């Protein structure tokens, strides 16, 4: 962990130096309001390069490094008006999955590792940590697609959904929520998640994204390794409540309450 933080700090210093150089030569107009607009794409690109270097040394992940380099590079080209590519256009990179699948077929004679159907989720509130191991009535795996939970009266059950690339729209205001503690977990590679919660149901929410943005009740956090934790005041004593966990490599997560 210490090595990871030192690497991130080093990359951050490099990014700041590069931006200052671009400012000095007049390539960009440096000011506080615009700084992050240029900083985080360069940070994503350098993070990808670092991951690839680690891969060549026998560590790290090749494909996530390629994704970060491509994604960060396209965002940088957009900043300099070479082409138009916004953060939400991350879905346009889905053909990388086809390339990944093609290369995976070249791995002859290798057996894949079995994955457990349940996951350990670590919730953090203040200094207390609790690990919950849940069993899910609904456990879905998708490659690419759009999924909407918005029909009137849909029943909320313990659910875990995994997706490579896709969009989710989940409207709990139209759902029938049982008098129980219901986990609802979403994990993916790249995508967008929109969640609408009713104001009469207690919940706790943990949202994580490696590269992207999280917007919870209007509070926006964007960049690298973003995370947000929120728990309603009466959550601990409530009998009807939701445990919501969203984890994406790259994407946008938005949560509203009405």
Automatic annotation (TrEMBL):
Keywords tagged on the record: Membrane, Transmembrane, Transmembrane helix
Protein's organism: Terribacillus saccharophilus
Keyword Transport attached: no
Classification via InterPro entries: Cell_wall_LiaF (IPR016975), LiaF-like_C (IPR024425), LiaF_C (IPR047793), LiaF_TM (IPR054331)
Residue ranges constituting the Cell wall-active antibiotics response LiaF-like C-terminal domain according to the UniProt record: 144-255
Protein's name in the database: Lia operon protein LiaF
Domain LiaF transmembrane: 8-111
GO cellular component, one term: membrane
Transmembrane segments: 7-30, 36-53, 60-78, 90-108
